[in-house]
UniProtKB/TrEMBL annotation:
Protein name, entry field: TetR/AcrR family transcriptional regulator
One Pfam family it belongs to: TetR_N
Classification via SUPFAM superfamilies: Homeodomain-like
PANTHER family reported for this sequence: HTH-TYPE TRANSCRIPTIONAL REGULATOR PKSA, HTH-TYPE TRANSCRIPTIONAL REGULATOR RUTR
Molecular function per GO: DNA-binding transcription factor activity; transcription cis-regulatory region binding
Bilayer-crossing regions: none
Keyword tRNA processing in record: no
The entry's DNA-binding region: 37-56
Coiled coil region boundaries: none
């Protein structure tokens, strides 16, 4: 039986799985999708290649786990950015600022790299459901602004935010983009 490095087997397994997810995310950021394989992930995590399949049935499952982890962190950061902000335009501004700052910090790069993955349809649907959950804060913010039909408005606003993310990802200053996105959204939503 292999030696465990945690107080319980469950904690050891959770730590090993987390190490594989972190290693996969690092490789994805460094080398893109082509650099992520069971072998490269296990090497980076300091584990034997056969260990991969103890934690993930397939590479798709690892990629989805990486995405889930990144989405959960993104969601938590957005919630933290909005927690002490008054509902209304200040809240929308904080949402836009946080989104663009997080993109500038490279936190959206994982999503871009994973878009290239040829995931099985069911795994892709799992990711889309998680991505849709990221719309909740925006829907809530738009509701506070009394925007008609906040879910539909959020999808439209997401298009503007996505364009801003693309600009920041290509090197435009995130503060400048946040200012422009906020202006475009407020003129479009309130005008």
């Amino acid at each position: 039986m292999p030696k465990i490095s945690a107080p319980t087997v469950a904690e050891h397994r959770a730590a090993q799985r987390a190490a594989l997810v972190r290693a996969g995310e690092t490789l994805l950021a460094e080398s893109g999708l082509g650099g992520v394989s069971p072998r490269s992930v296990c090497e980076r995590a300091g584990m034997s290649r056969s260990s991969f399949y103890d934690y993930f049935p397939s590479l798709d499952d690892l990629l989805v786990a990486i995405a889930i982890d990144a989405i959960e962190r993104w969601d938590a950061e957005i919630d933290e950015a909005l927690v002490r902000v008054e509902p209304g335009l200040d809240e929308l501004r904080a949402f836009v600022d946080a989104t663009m700052a997080m993109t500038a910090d490279g936190k959206h790069a994982i999503a871009g790299a994973l878009r290239e993955a040829d995931l099985s349809p069911s795994r892709f649907d799992d990711l889309m459901a998680l991505h849709d959950a990221l719309m909740r804060p925006l829907v809530r913010v738009l509701g506070h602004l009394n925007v008609p039909n906040p879910p539909t408005a959020a999808v439209l606003a997401q298009g503007v935010l996505g364009a801003g993310i693309q600009l920041v990802s290509h090197g435009t200053d995130h503060r400048e983009v946040a200012r422009d996105v906020f202006g475009l959204l407020t003129r479009g939503l309130m005008g």
